[in-house]
Design brief:
- Helices cover 29% and strands 20% of the residues.
- By secondary structure, the protein is α/β, with parallel strands linked by helices.
- The chain has a single domain, classed as Aminopeptidase, CATH 3.40.630.
- The protein has a 6-stranded mixed sheet. Strands 1-2 form a two-stranded antiparallel sheet. Strands 3-4 form a two-stranded antiparallel sheet.
- It is globular and about 50 Å long.
Length: 339
């Protein structure tokens, strides 16, 4: 595959060719045996709050575009730093510089690292990218391909979920500490034909620093949260997450937790080969990491919202966010021996 962010090859009857993604159609959610199911009903005593999670998503989108190196990104960073510190997280920035692909100027970027129980040497990584693509360059209307791109699902959803999880991870018992990492520069792409090297810059920098200047702690497992807010949620097992045995183990654990909880949106079948921030973590940092991503946004057979002006908060839901958060939180509890 070419080095394009989130280029996809479906596992059944799908392929990417000439920049167009062909996907097979599904109606509704599928269970592990391929049967159509209804959406999961959330329990009344669920600790995560859908309304609050969705409010985080809308608050982030209200900032506007959060392109790397812009005022929008700086405003988002200020908001997130205040939120995570208020919940008890220890926030540090990991700055780095890149060259602008269009004009060669210097662009200052920074990953945000939020530590929970920083004294624990064994750690688990939960991550998302918090930058937005500069333009909605896949909009079906060519006249809109230089309009505003809000990135509600592709940009804000993973961040909003981590904002909600901040109310809960601080109370997890040992032995693992938890780090949130928000990656900058995931898709600093102004021309997809030219800027093929301007993907995953934050996660690549993070991986190189982890290897080149090893911290005292070690990350034993990681989970990437990307495009997890789709109101019509379907989560297949992403193919690159299954290639390495250690990452495949995380996939199996998380989808088993989802099955135990009855969260039917986690479909235990492989689909979509996605180039994303988990690749530098697996390949360079050697941190086993899986990608939880809904690439059928909203679903096959319909005009996709990915990288279009239609990726707006009304296409997302707090229920979807907390379904993913519930599964991840329960998975973390299995690591602490609580479940």
């Amino acid at each position: 595959m070419t080095n394009r962010n989130k280029l996809v090859i479906g596992s059944i009857g799908a392929f990417a060719l000439a920049g167009i993604v062909y996907l097979f159609a599904i109606n509704g959610n599928e269970s592990a045996d391929g049967q159509i199911t209804s959406g999961t009903q959330l329990p009344a005593n669920l600790p995560l709050q859908p309304e609050r999670a969705y409010e985080f998503l809308t608050t982030i989108c209200d900032i506007g575009p959060r392109v790397s190196g812009t005022e929008g990104m700086a405003r988002q960073q200020q908001f997130l730093k205040g939120h995570f510190e208020a919940r008890g997280g220890m926030v540090t920035m990991q700055p780095f510089k890149v060259r602008h692909p269009a004009n060669g100027s210097r662009v200052d970027m920074a990953n945000m690292i939020v530590e929970w129980h920083p004294d624990r040497q064994r750690r688990i990584l939960l991550c998302a990218h918090y930058d937005t693509r500069p333009f909605p360059d896949r909009d079906p209307n060519p006249r809109k391909r230089r309009d505003i791109f809000l990135g509600a699902n592709d940009g804000a959803s993973g961040v909003a979920l981590l904002c909600e999880l901040a109310y809960h991870v601080k109370d997890l018992p040992g032995p693992f500490g938890i780090d949130f990492v928000l990656f900058d520069g995931e898709e600093f792409v102004f021309d997809d034909n030219r800027d093929r090297e301007w993907y995953f810059m934050g996660s690549t920098w993070f991986a190189r620093q982890y290897v080149g200047e090893p911290p005292a702690h070690r990350y034993e497992q990681g989970v990437l949260l990307d495009m997890v807010g789709d109101a019509d949620l379907t989560l297949y097992q992403e193919i690159n997450s299954l290639r390495r045995p250690a990452a495949r183990e995380i996939v199996n654990e998380i989808w088993d937790v989802a099955a135990r909880l009855g969260v039917k949106e986690f479909i235990k079948r492989r689909k979509h080969e996605v180039r994303d921030d988990h690749l530098p973590l697996n390949d360079q940092a050697r941190i086993p990491t899986c990608n939880i991503i809904d690439f059928d946004y909203p679903r096959p057979g319909r005009q996709q919202y990915w990288h279009t002006t239609a990726d707006t908060p009304d296409k997302c839901s707090g229920e979807s966010l907390v379904k993913v958060g519930w599964v991840v939180l329960e998975w973390l509890k299995t690591k602490s021996g609580e479940n």
